[in-house]
Amino acid sequence: MRVVAEDGSNLGVLPTDQALKRAQEVGLDLVEVNPKGTPPVCKILDFGKYKYEEKKKAAEAKRKQTVVEVKEVKIRPKTDEHDLNVKIRAIRRFIEAGNKVKVVCRFRGREMMHPQVASGQLQDIIKAVEDLVNLEQRPMMEQRTMAMLVSPKPVVFQRLQQLQREREKAREKGEPLPPTPEEEEELHDDDDDDDDDDDDDDDDGGEEDGGEEKES
Predict the structure, then answer these.
(1) What pLDDT is stored for residue 110 in this prediction?
(2) Helix 115-129 to helix 81-96 angle, to the nearest 10 degrees?
(3) Single pTM value for the model
(4) Is the dihedral of CA 167, 188, 98, 215 positive or negative?
(5) CA neighbor of 124 nearest in space, from 108, 103, 107
(6) What are the backbone dihedrals phi and psi of residue 102, each rounded to the nearest 5 degrees, phi first?
(7) Please, where are the H alpha helices in 174-211?
(8) b/e per residue, 17-34, with b = 16+ CB within 10 A?
(9) Comparing C-alpha atoms, which of 17, 169, 180, 204 is closest to residue 97?
(10) Ramachandran sector of residue 5 (left: φ over 0; alpha: ψ -120 to 50; beta: rest)
């Protein structure tokens, strides 16, 4: 096996018994760090400390990992301009947080006779967020709904990575952390509570509602 000493120097290729003896002499362990090497690579180190550092690295990597979720935003053909703008702001927040967004327009009763209205709404939404999104699924009918799926552009993830670096620096200095898009999203949750769907409305005459955002 190829052996790396406790100070990082290369001891070369040694028989297993010699490598173990060297580790015992310095009161440390012989740990295989690259079993696929030719020959395998082992390092003389403190195994307990090594396990702790590996666990810490894995936790740090998991914390930095960007988890992409699919958020859902509902609208109706009768959704007015104000409520549609509220939905657009919600979509932008979801995208800026690194999530995909499924926009669903629900039809009721005779609304099915005018799919062009929903198509126009979805096209307006695309134009309003085109600086942030790629159109992953074009607007298409799904039973009594028309839906599309948008996903963040690479620039969004670049901004999230930059924010993560800023938060790391702030954490090291003990300074207040810059808010994440998710934290900013919580501050705006009340924007969308005034026009939630009411599934008890009848197909033909229920009041118009603007839908809701939810995590799917």
Answers:
(1) 83
(2) 50
(3) 0.55
(4) positive
(5) 103
(6) -100, 120
(7) 181-187
(8) eebbebbeeeebbbbeee
(9) 180
(10) beta
Helix axes 81-96, 154-173, angle to 10 degrees: 60
Low-confidence stretches of the chain (pLDDT beneath 50): 190-216
Helix (H), strand (E) counts: the chain: 6, 9
* Residue 112 DSSP class: G
Place of tokens 């994440």: 180
In the chain, beta strands by DSSP E: 2-4, 10-13, 29-34, 41-45, 70-75, 100-106, 133-142, 145-152, 213-215
The pLDDT score that the predictor gives to residue 150 is: 95
What are 36's two structure tokens? 């696929």
What is d(CA 95, CA 196) in angstroms, rounded to the nearest whole number?
A: 21
pLDDT of 56 reads: 83
Q: Read off the pLDDT of residues 162-178 as tens digits, 9 standing for 90 and up.
A: 888 888 888 788 888 77
Q: Please give the Cα distance from 152 to 131 (Å, whole number).
A: 9
Single out the residue of 76, 70, 72 nearest to residue 197, CA to CA: 76
